Amino acid sequence: MMKRVLAIILGGGAGTRLYPLTKLRAKPAVPLAGKYRLIDIPISNCINSEIHKIYVLTQYNSASLNRHLNRTYVFAGFLDGFVEVLAAQQTPDNPGWFQGTADAVRQYMWLFETWDVDQYLILSGDHLYRMDYREFIGHHIRTNADITLSVIPVEEKRATAFGLMKIDDTGRVIDFREKPKGQALYDMRVDTTRLGLPLEEAMRKPYIASMGIYVFNKDILKKLLMEDPSRTDFGKEVIPAAIKDHNIQVYLFNDYWEDIGTIESFYEANLALTKQPNPPFSFYDEKAPIYTRSRYLPPSKLLNCEIVESLVSEGCILKECRVRHSVLGIRSRIQSGCVIEDTLVMGADYYEPYEQRFPDPFDSHIPVGIGENTVIRRSIVDKNARIGKDVQIINKDWVQEADREAMGFYIRNGIVVVIKNAVIPDGTII
After folding, report:
1. Low-confidence winner among 104-108, 216-220, 244-248, 372-376 (lowest mean pLDDT)
2. How far does CA 74 lie from the centroid of its chain?
3. Number of neighbours of residue 373 by Cβ within 10 angstroms
4. Of 110, 114, 104, nearest in space to 53 by CA
5. Beta bridge pairs of residue 47
6. Contact present, 163 and 176 (Cβ < 8 Å)
7. Minimal CA–CA distance to 150: which of 76, 53, 254, 52?
8. Dihedral sign, Cα of residue 128, residue 134, residue 139, residue 141
9. 3-state SS of the chain?
10. How many CB atoms lie within 10 A of CB 182?
């Protein structure tokens, strides 16, 4: 059955809500959990669900995304599988960039329809969750749906951030509104016990929210996209317009799912992985692993360190430091006397040889990594950052928003983000 499914992963736009992490990379290429990238989540879900025909649509900074996918997802020839990036391109028919989620798919519809498949599975490239798409597509087929939306039940506080829907007794969608507020929000309340929720949970979560994950029958998607080219977004235009004449069903996903499209949600989702004993999302599921590029790095070396509730990726070198409730990415180097708390350190793309790290005792060169006696709290340190000795990155004035690109950092929601390749001189206090 899954051989008749083509997966299309939407790589997102410029990723402005994740800036500066998206300054030099596409949003799906942003590092996750020390060694993965965001794009690894939907691709791994596809592979674990036996879906091997996968396209990734993107239009910004796609070089690192291309490199990651080409090095990671190489299927054997007999599998008839592939993972391929499709970047926005100008053509005589379409001289512009992707104008939205639906427009991105429309511009490559000529390619998608050449595949002999029955359904298109449309996914997002910036969500953290584990789903067996076989159950999702099986529900779509059993209900004889034209379109099926994967949904989660949500409480009122979160509801305004989603596309919400109402359903009838058969599970068919009869109304869909994108991010309603006020009375329009209240009007979208439904009895979520219809989806199988216990009464108590249904009372707490009286809204059905779209996850931005869809299954379309092949002919239906082409019809909807081609009949009105002005409809550029699935949630705002295409799906609401299809409700009247098409059988749109919902599939309940009542498990961990997080949209990590902002700096704050990205930071919280990463640090939540350190929780004990049961983090909300686990990378330790042998039946449904999350794949990424094999780097063949050496084991991490910890020299007289105190590590509490943290993830330490491979290839790290830590000397006499204290790390608490943090995630350390591949090849992280932390020198003696450092204190790292509530922080995501993304690590480095390479090792600096000793003669380059310490070229001369009188040289002001700062090596890749975190220098001696530095304190970092509630921060994100992007890859290849050079942080000197006796630095304090603690947001001492509790600033909520700041752009200090010339100094090597931004502040978003009170979280200090040290940008990729930044150099923070000795003794700096942020």
Report:
1. 104-108
2. 21
3. 16
4. 114
5. none
6. yes
7. 254
8. positive
9. CHHHEEEEEECCCCCHHHCCCCCCCCHHHCEECCCEECCHHHHHHHHHCCCCEEEEEECCCCHHHHHHHHHHCCCCHHHCCEEEEEECCCCCCCCCCCCCHHHHHHHCHHHHCCCCCCEEEEEECCEEECCCHHHHHHHHHHCCCCEEEEEEEECHHHHCCCEEEEECCCCEEEEEEECCCCHHHHCCCCCHHHHCCCHHHHHHCCEEEEEEEEEEEHHHHHHHHHHCCCCCCHHHHHHHHHCCCCCEEEEECCCCEEECCCHHHHHHHHHHCCCCCCCCCCCCCCCCCCCCCCCCCCCCEEECCEEECCEECCCCEEECCEEECCEECCCCEECCCCEEEEEEECCCCCCCCHHHHCCCCCCCCCCCEECCCCEEEEEEECCCCEECCCCEECCCCCCCEEEEHHHCEEEECCEEEECCCCEECCCCEC
10. 8
Quote the distance between the C-alpha of residue 9 and its chain's center.
Answer: 11
In this prediction, residues 40-44 reach a mean pLDDT of: 97
Query: What are the φ/ψ torsions at residue 8 (nearest 5 degrees)?
Result: -125, 115
Hey, what are 145's tokens?
Answer: 């749906």
Mean pLDDT of 388-407: 94
Cα separation values, 408 from 57, 108, 221, 385, 404, Å: 30, 38, 45, 9, 6
Sequence-ordered list of residues with C-beta below 8 angstroms from that of 43, at least 6 positions apart, any chain: 9, 54, 56, 73, 83, 291
Question: How many whole angstroms separate alpha carbon 211 and alpha carbon 259?
Answer: 8
Single-letter residue type at 170: T
pLDDT single digits (tens) 101-139? 888 888 889 999 999 999 999 999 989 999 999 999 999
